[in-house]
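The data are quoted verbatim for completeness:
=====
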Amino acid sequence: MKLRRYEGNPILSPVADHPWECLVNTNPGAWYDEERGEVLMLYRAAGDDPEHRIHFGLATSKDGIHFERASDQPILSPSVDGFDAGCVEDARIVKVEGWYVITYASRPFPPGQYWKTGPYVPPNFPRWFPWGIRENATSTGLLLTQDFKTYIRAGRLTDPTTDDRDVILFPEKIGGRFAMMHRPMTWVGGSYGTEFPAMWISFGDDLLSWGDSKLLAKAEYPWENQKIGGNTPPLKTDQGWLTLYHAVGEDRHYRLGAMLLDLRNPSRVTHRTRDWILQPEEWYELEGYYAGVVFPCGSVILKDTLHVYYGGADKYVGLATCPMAELMDSLLSCPTGL
């Protein structure tokens, strides 16, 4: 089973006369709001500034295919001097009791135009300063909004000394506790049970305090023989929590797989695709600032069809779909044996 690309891709591209997004529109988070009757999309946006400050843009769609930008300005930008002063990117959106709860990747300093200069490292920080800031590591922040106009920056979910991203919340409590998936880059080695960075699941009584962490999934198949990480917020189905994940192979390309997690115990993967369901093949996935990337941050179900919104080559937004029944049949044929 493979996802099918929308023939009109890319559905969002950089806008030349918007300085803040003239270089990048990519890695979209998405949520279908039944009350509004529309898909809401938060996408990563950046202009041609040498610092490469990264913002959020907002786009909406009635049919899940054709999107209109909500504004000619960013919907949210990096803070002035906080932990997210460098970038806000890669939103994952869930809705809890009337509030949109959004996790997002951030850095204390802009990343720079990494495809030209390599990762930006802030100069002259004292050696005793926290590693995460000294090395401009990624951490994950939490946003709350009810209208996508005003936002509460609720704080940081992850340890500032650990490069930890791909943080995804479940849309409801499980067993009375919140749950999140994440990918801490340094949790590798014998004591962690994984050779490469992997997907973990943690639990907490509130959204800023996490523990009870367990290894959820690690690289197992040839196409995922480097790091893996979560992509899309879990969708609740009768068969389990459906989520998509990415894996990086030896060619450094990002490919997508899918898995089902047990509804009552989401630390247990019950089914997992053995082969990728989308890989970089088209020009908008191969020609950009990271050649060879398909990277979704959101998916929605519309008329029994899964719509997957993904970033292509760190530059564009694409759409891929498949019938839910087809995907579920494919997944259910791949039990993990756990």
About this structure: The chain has a mean pLDDT of 95. DSSP finds four helices and 21 strands in the chain. Residues 324-332 form the longest helix (9 residues). The two ends are 23 Å apart (CA to CA).
